[in-house]
Design a protein that fits this description.
The protein is about 55% helix and about 20% strand. The chain is of the alpha+beta class and about 260 residues long. A 5-stranded mixed β-sheet has the order 2-4-5-7-6, with helices on one face. Strand 4 and strand 5 form a beta hairpin. Helix 1 packs antiparallel against helix 2. The longest helix is centred in the N-terminal third of the chain and has 61 residues. The chain starts with a helix and ends with a strand. The mean pLDDT is about 90. The structure holds adenosine-5'-diphosphate. The site of adenosine-5'-diphosphate has 23 residues, from helix 5 and helix 7. Adenosine-5'-diphosphate binds next to helix 5 and helix 7.
Amino acid sequence: DFDARIRFTRKDELGTLADSFNHMAQKLQEIEQMRQDFVSNVSHEIQSPLTSIKGFSKALHEGELPDDTRKRYLQIIHEESERLSRLSENLLRLASLEAKHHPFRPFPYALDEGLRHAVIAAEPLWSAKGLTVELDLRPIILIADSDQLSQVWTNLLGNAIKYTPPGGTISLSLTEAENSVTVSIRDTGIGIPAEDLDKIYERFYKVDKARDRSVGGNGLGLAIVKTIISIHGGEIALESAVGQGSTFSVTLPKP
Ligand code: ADP
């Protein structure tokens, strides 16, 4: 009886050990898959602007081209270089957020001023497109990292501008609850299909790759947004209808 009990215990322990090894092996496999996907996504994001830069600079170098064609090619080379810069900036930003190099330094932060500042900084972009920006703000002080939150507003507002056709409207509003405040950024843009709603925060995810090329995105903006919000103990939600627009709602805890 005694023997049987010992054997049973050991077997049980071995079983538990085997289970944790299997679990660990599976996790390692998932991490390895993520690493491979990441490398192939980064390579792809580098490759496509480089192909343009190589092609157009070769054409400029070899051919006797009319002035307006030269200008157009130089413009493309400039835009594609900007794309590469944005990619490297965003990769560094994400890596540093994930590695927690910059410790989270929360200070009193005037949320309404932060939002207003982001709208003013983006004015050249939205006014050039003939967009209207409406603000419905009131003074609210949070405890937050102002650099990080300003990145959030820049990315969300930047997307609203990128994905809203000329003449549309972007509205920023604040709603307060007892323990939290919600910032809503609503646009009258192209919207996001229901099947993509929960994937758009993934790194490098783009709803429409062909469309995104023309607006220069790299699919990292919302991954950065989501990481910063979760560092702040907040949440992000999205409602969208194709052809009608999208509303991103960021809820942050109140002090
Ligand atoms: P990107 O740099 O490509 O804009 P993001 O991570 O910021 O990357 O966004 C991921 C994808 O989500 C975008 O490629 C776009 O397809 C979609 N998206 C984000 N914001 C909006 C929006 N306001 N309206 C429509 N689509 C959006």
